[in-house]
Structures are given as structure tokens and as C-alpha cells.
Amino acid sequence: MRGPHNIWRLIRTGATFERTGAMGAALDAMNAPARIRMAAHVLGWPFAWLGYKGDPALPPVTRAITALGPAYIKFGQILSTRPDVVGPELAEQLSMLQDRLPPFPQDQALAIIAEALGQPVDALFDEFSEPVAAASIAQVHRARRADNGREVAVKVLRPSVEADFRRDIDAFHFAAGMIERISPATRRLRPRDVVTHFETVVTGELDLRREASAASEFAENTREDKGMRVPRPHWHLSARRVLTSDWAEGTPLGDVAALRAAGHDLPALAARVLQLFLQHALRDGFFHADMHQGNLKVGADGDVIMYDFGIMGEIDEYTRRVYAEILMGFIRRDYMRVARVHFEAGYVPRDRDMAEFARALRAVGEPIFGADASRISMANLLAYLFEVTERFGMRTRTELILLQRTMVVVEGVARSLDPQMNMWEAARPVVENYIRDNLGPKAAVRDLARSAQVLSRYAPLLPEFLERRMPEMLREPDSRSEDARGKRGGLLAGMAAGAFIALVSVAIGVWLA
Length: 513
What we know:
By secondary structure, the protein is of the alpha+beta class. It is built from 23 helices and ten strands.
């Protein structure tokens, strides 16, 4: 029954956009070609009566998205940070999806908290407000702890949010499979893997204990970072459906007029938001992956306050180095360097021509760098780069989806504060610092030291391994065979490598001493 159920869900999605008038508004905002508009209306009009009605008080696109549920709201939140894609008017309408959705009833929230924490709310908090913010996953209440009087934010999951997400994710999986079957060329983009990745992210967001853990780790990683703050979780007042954390007092980053009236330096704030994101992604490999305006405030002292850690991104050290090299190559307009990094990382098949790939990358970068600051867009670069990599057979890197998506969102946030911001100049110092610290001579020594530490852990096992395996290798009856020679060669090479690393580790130990 999953197939019919999902077909029905996708039909109702298109029908809801048609019924609410969102179809035309969305196509107008994105300047869709006339034939696309015609096709959308011809396919949607007969089914319009099947669509959800939504809240007539809301603008059409917001009305349709909120009627369709939390997974669609998440997508709308991303678009709200991209006025250059959907237009300023639609971006403003979608901004309400960040934290101004209709809340669910107070008595339901109180019941969820009491069940999750094992005590009535009156016993835990002296004060407990009506919802102060409501988004797709949860709503937030302002409260005061009964034991110490501290002000806290209490986040409570929506009652039926898990079931709603499961329904939509199921439909997304079905749609991705249909796309791959109908258009084999799309398999390179791995749509099913992309949906699986999105499902993993969302599933983590629905367990507030994981968000508390992420907030705690993120706070530890960034405790020395200047110009930012992270509210810490209160563990004994948190559970799977409830999260209590420090109250973050500040001006929402999306309220540009209020920030300007308070005397904040908007261009400096824009640069700081971008630089903080890159710093966390490159230095820590653990970054806030939902950095829209609804999750950011500015304190009275000018600090950027980050909260809502339901979606976090993580990339390994090797991928961080590759990403930094690619960014720096574009910043310095060294397209051969960018091409070489793609080939060395295995992102582009080795049977392709590296010089031709570098020339294609130049065609991506030069028009952007030739534009004025307001048109230098990482989002545009990613879009053009996508076209080039498609031509050269590069497969979608699912481990970079969150990183790239967050980069686009962060750019949108920064542009809302400073439309004239030069993204590359703002990114340059962070990327250069990372490369200096992680790709230079000191980094090479540090990598050798780590290799020596790993070898030292296995060193006690090495004599036994050699005593057991070496006689077997020497007694091979088919010792003249290519396979046996290969095995012996591999073993000897491993021994040589181990001896080399051991000698290097001794030298490093003496040098560090």
C-alpha cells in the first residue's frame, strides 16, 4: 500500500499549491518560463479540489506549506533565506516559517512536560509562559526554575510531529525512486541517498536529548570563540520530547530594523556569521546546520547567540581539508588547483581530462569574480559548479549536502544584513588560517605523530603476528606464483612502512622533548 499512499500524498501536494494559489505565486517569484507555468496549471487544476485549504489569513505559499506539514515547512525555511532566488516579497512571507507558526494548545504542552519529566510543571517552574515561538518541530516557552530562579527556555515537541514526518519522508523516498526509474541520468545525483540523508537528519531532530548533547558539545568547542554565545542545556529538566536550556535574551537576527536601531554594525555582523560558520565547519568538523535567522539572536553586547541545535553537520578531517583547498583555490582563482583537488579526492573520475576540467572551472569562477560585490554569490557558484561536475560525471557527495546547504543559508542570512558583502573576502582569513594550520609543515609533523600513536597501540601485537604469519608465507607451496609473491611483497612493504613510522615517531618524540 505504500505506493498508492505516496502517489496520493504527492498529488495532494500539487493540489494544495493549486488550491491555495501558491502555484502561481511561487512560479512568478522564481520567474519560471511560460511553458513551465502552463504545464503546472494544466496538471494541477483538475486536482485542486483535493488540496488542503490551509489558513486563508496567510499568504498563498506560506498557507500551502503550513497546510502540508513539517517536512515542507523545513524546505520553506531554507527558501526564506534566499531572496535572490525567490524574490524579496516571497522571502519575507516565508520568514514566518522560522519561528512564527501557530502554536499548539498550552494544556497539551503541560501534559507532555509532566509525562516526560515525571513531575507537574508547577513543581518544576515558578513561572511558565504561553508559547513565545513556534516552528515546524516544536514550540518554546519562557520559564523560571523553581529551585534556583534561573530563567530558561523550555522546548516541547509538537504532539503528532513524528507521524507527520514519517508520512512525508515516505513520500519523498517514493518520489526519489520514481525519478531514478523514469530518468536514469538522475542516478548520478543519488536522489534516494539524498532523501535518506535528510531522513537521518530529521530523525535526530525529533529526539531532544540528542539536541541537548549537540548543544553541549558545540558549547565546548566554541567556548573560546569571541563574539558568540551558546545557551547550555539543563540535563535534569530535559528528555526525548522536552529540552530546557539557558534563556537567550537578544534581538532576532531577522529584525534588521531593530538591529540598526540598537546601533549594531550590520556589515560586521554579516561577516561574523559567515566566518563563525566556516570556522566551526573547518576547525571542528561540527557545525550548526540550521543557521537561519530564526535560530540566531544578537545580544546587547553585540554577541551572536546561536540556539536550536536539532540539525548539526559533521565532516571528517580529510573532507575538511579538501573543502578548504577547493575554497582557497576559488578565492585565489587557481582553477588548476581546484581541479587537482577534485581528482585527488576521487570526486571526478580519473579518466577525465584534468586540464579541461580546470578550464570548465574557470568558466564557473571568472564571471562571478568579475561581478560587483552584491552579485558575488557562493550559491551561484555552487549552482554553476553543479552543472560542470554533472558534465564530468561527478557523483553527488551526500556527506557534503548539509555543508553546502548551510553555506547557502548562511549566505542568505549575511546578505540580509549587508547586501554589498563580498563573500569571498569575508571567507578568506578563515580559510587561509585553516590551511596554514592544517596543510603546512606543522600539520605534516602532527599527522606523523598521530600515525605513530596508532602504531604504538598495535606494536605489542606485531611480534606475535610476524612469528605466526612469516613462516606460513615462506612455506607457501606455490611461492613462485604471482599471488604469493604479492602477499610477501605486501607484508614486507608493511613491515618497512611500520619501521619507517617507528623511526619517525622516535625522532618526533626526541624533537618534542
